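Protein Entry — a single chain follows
Next Lines — sequence and tokenised fold
***
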Amino acid sequence: MNYMKQLEKGILLWYPFKENSRILGINTPDSLNDIVYTGKPIGKYDYVVLYDALDKIEIAKDYLTEDGVLITIIDNLLGARFFCGESRREGLFQKSQIENILEQNGFNNNKFYSVFPNYKEPQLIFAAGTDIKESLECRYIPKYEDNKKIYISEGKLCDGFAQEGVLDVFANSYFIESTNGENIADVESVTLSLDRSCEKAMITILSKDRVIKKAANIEGIVALKQTYDNHSYLQKRNISVIPTELIGDMLTMPYIDYSLANNYLMNLLVTDAELFKKRFDEFYNVIIESSEVVDNNSLGPILKKGFIDLVPINSFWDGEKYIIFDQEYCIPCLPANVMVFRAIVIIYDGINENEALVSREYLYEKYNMSNCLNELSAISSSFINQLREKEIYEYNKKHQIFPQQINENYQRMFSKMNEDSHIDGIEEKIIDEYKKHCFDGIENKEIVVWGTGAWADKFMNFYRNDYKIISVIDNNGEKNGHSFYGVKVDSPESLKSPTYNFKVIVCVKNCLSIIKQLYDMGVSNIGVYDANYLYERTIPMRFSQENVKKKYKVGYVSGVFDLYHIGHINMFRRAKEQCEYLIVAVTSDEYVREHKKREPFIPVDERVECVKSCRYVDEVFITPYKYCGIDDAYRKFHYDVQFCGSDYANNSWWLDQKRWLEEHGSHLEFLSYTEQTSSTKIKELIQKGLL
């Protein structure tokens, strides 16, 4: 199913239309055609859905039965997203104006639902007047047409509106029931998890006395059964779980009026340090007791069944204990610290961390996680990525926004870098120069990386094997002494009396203050690494001696290359026939496990040696698991062409990548495989015991 169509359908998928009712759609998109009738109206209808067309309300009214329901779906002039920087379109109305229009047309019984982020991509829906107990900052992922314009956290803004009781006034969109009868739905709130694959997309509906969870698509019914089984297992482990009943294609639970554990823990974190430590330790024990511990390694205790969503946002605090709900996923042999890591991130992301009375680092140390944070983060990220298909991932990458980018946008748009400096673009020119010459002259130097954030993470993944990195620097004293990709993190003071020939690569987005700090320390050999900048090739290429001009200079191929065979060699040969220098990227073992759902037959180091032995290959690179996208590969190698198997020639995702490469001056060529031999055929023979 097309991702955007699944999202658009969400605005009606949750609604409890009465069985055998007639539903007319006015101005509705094609994605809703299997829910509403959009042909020439005949007679009267039990429901009329007016989709972004308030000017057609009189037409809609004419087709309604006497006690029928008009459903109006429309954006709000005063939507919270517009206060955060999103552009407002013409022709919108605010809530009071919409109410007046409805009343003028004879609709006096109106129930407003607030929709976030908007009616085309609904995630959360609240009936007006609903007491919202959860933090929207934690549960809600805003999306925007242009996220470079967003300079305020919409989640925090909406939390403030909810506390003041005016969230419905500032809803981004409205879903409105209007009737002269009594057919108003008994629904208080809806959570739609539609940014997933078809079999994992879910809808949760809360009314005053019960909660219903149902699959958004028929493929998801298996997942509902799994959730029921997971809850049953946890109950047998003496974990407090909300009683769940599986009825047909729905899970039902009683409505429980307790505080979310996440809200409770966030409040303790800024008010009572000792009680927070005690309560978090109790949550840690729930995780440990949720399954049998089958091993203990560098990542901590390994659970036989790992409920990766066993985190505070899926728990209540009843005053004495935690009560768990919504455990959809179970992963065999999962480190318990994955859930602990996720719990810490979720809690701390929901507060102003400067107000925290207990640091994240304290918890990481207490639960022996400090030396494996990168591994735990990778497991957590891969779980999230598995829920989403490539189309979803690419869409979210373009339209989502996270706190760090909001801060950067704000700084760019409103902050002065330094009150006593000349704000005339000089600073930006300095940074641009350091960026352009980031890799100049570093082949024979020792490298100091400044930063431990996202850009430093990417730099280490791409270049730690190319250059001699001797130290990592961070201004956060709590990180000093820790390890970052096997390199010790030091304080800036360690640079004041250097005894080595070094260059500092600053891997921090807002880096002007760090450059000034380095100046003050007498350090001038500086580079600025920008993870989004298109650098030229930084490692010299050793061309073969054939000296033959070919169609392309530098070519690139990526793959697993498991069970290395003649088909791989033929592909390399065909690629080399078209380029003077061929780079082959070999995917990591972690990639195979997460995306192919199996163990590699041959570990990555051996696969690399096999590929290196091929005379058509000039360079081999292990693709970092976190950065295995085409855009990341192009930023590192700046190749002229990427070669891909011909079986993807009509794949829409690959065609999008082809367009992206062409926009950046590169190409994508599809090469045919060897028909007689393939890794798939060899695996089938192995599984059948024929090899």
Observations:
- The chain has a mean pLDDT of 86.
